[in-house]
């Protein structure tokens, strides 16, 4: 039996209005409540001073109002990057990162507590999946960071812990709320969702014709090598994945970003680069090269600067747009998922009282 109270911050405006009118409120209260939650990012129902006190009391009594607690913040002294660790209601923790770019501020959020995709190089995979995040828990990461920094967040990337397309319905609701004009009204074009390659969900997403950017974690250009790095490749082969990407572009007109993390001696040879060019030839896409962020207990190391530049040049010569991911916040922590993991281990050893 599900005895959880309704999570009002995860409802869209129509659902919220239906919910409160069923409880005897006037419909216009729906928009007021929605704006308090998603535009003013209120941290409590008590802040919503233009709602009648009796209504506020009813909401407090009968609903869940999701607010994440900051468990830790690490701030880079080099570039303004801030890494947040948030505590969820049930004791789970998630990580989010605030990054400053010339083009605006970007927030990287988690979509799940843990992950069950099992990528061999990723810290988030080590302890498996704990649970999916709700739409409100995804939104709250953005709202909390925007409140904490006092700065406008112009881009959101779903590239933290978790596989967003493994939490498909909640992800979609999150995108709806994030981009709604009565909320913080983010442009879909400023949102990127990164996936390890769940083909059925990529196809389903294509039909939604959203204007978001889809990023595919490719990391290898051959089926065999991809399987050795990412177990998901055994389920969805590289040919089906590429066909799904072409279909996504056809349906949305949005250029795909391919993420290619570089692991020295594994996927950074000249042959690897040639194969990658062959795979992407003729596609309207963009490649993002990411030197691997070494994870404790995993053997992968990044290539040297020369190796990196030689792959970049190889792609450029074939006319494939390529960028190297800037390393931000290198003084505060290592790979994504590591901060969460460190804290979960500490919490296990000495339960917080
Ligand atoms: N599950 C999604 C999003 C989360 S991971 C996905 O797979 O795309 C975000 C990106 O970081 C992915 O491209 C992932 O493969 C990459 N990544 C994970 N661990 C890494 C590490 N230690 N070094 C470099 N990239 C890593």
Which features does this protein show?
binds S-adenosyl-L-homocysteine, TIM Barrel, alpha/beta, 353 residues, 12 helices, two-stranded antiparallel ribbon
Describe the fold and architecture.
With 353 residues, the chain is an alpha/beta fold. It folds into 2 domains: 8-62, DNA polymerase, domain 1 (Orthogonal Bundle), CATH 1.10.150.530; 69-349, Alpha-Beta Barrel (TIM Barrel), CATH 3.20.20. The protein has helices spanning 13-22, 28-38, 53-62, 135-149, 168-179, 199-208, 223-229, 232-235, 238-252, 270-280, 305-317, 338-349; strands spanning 69-75, 82-87, 93-101, 104-108, 112-114, 129-132, 155-158, 191-195, 213-217, 256-262, 285-291, 322-324. A 10-stranded mixed β-sheet has the order 1-2-3-4-7-8-9-10-11-12. A two-stranded antiparallel ribbon has the order 5-6. Helix 6 (199-208) packs parallel to helix 9. The chain starts with 12 loop residues before the first helix and ends with a helix. S-adenosyl-L-homocysteine binds next to strand 8 and strand 10.
Radius of gyration: 21 Å
| Domain tally | 2
Structural class of the helix and strand makeup? Answer: alpha/beta
Number of alpha- plus pi-helical segments: 12
Level-2 CATH architecture of the largest domain: Alpha-Beta Barrel
Shape: globular
Proportion of residues in helical segments = 25-40%
% residues in beta strands: 15-25%
Short description:
The chain contains 12 helices and 12 strands.
Write the layout of secondary structure elements.
Layout: H1 13-22, H2 28-38, H3 53-62, E1 69-75, E2 82-87, E3 93-101, E4 104-108, E5 112-114, E6 129-132, H4 135-149, E7 155-158, H5 168-179, E8 191-195, H6 199-208, E9 213-217, H7 223-229, H8 232-235, H9 238-252, E10 256-262, H10 270-280, E11 285-291, H11 305-317, E12 322-324, H12 338-349
Bound molecules: S-adenosyl-L-homocysteine.
